[in-house]
Amino acid sequence: MTSRTIRHPGPASPERTAAIAGSAVPLQFTLEPGQAVDAAIAKGFASFGCTGGFVEFKGGICEPFQFVMPAASPDVLHAAWYSETFEPTGRVEIERACAIVGWRDGKLFIHCHGIWNSRDGRQMGHMLGPATIVAEPIAVTGIGSRTAAFKALPDPETNFTLFEPVLVSEGIVGASHSHVLLVKVKPNEDITFAIEAICLRHGIKAANVYGIGSLNEVRFVDGTRVGSHATEVLIRKGRMMNVDNLPRASLDIDVVDMQGRIFEGEIVRGDNPVCVTFELVIEPSST
Question: 17-22+177-284 with 25-144: one CATH topology?
Answer without folding.
Answer: yes
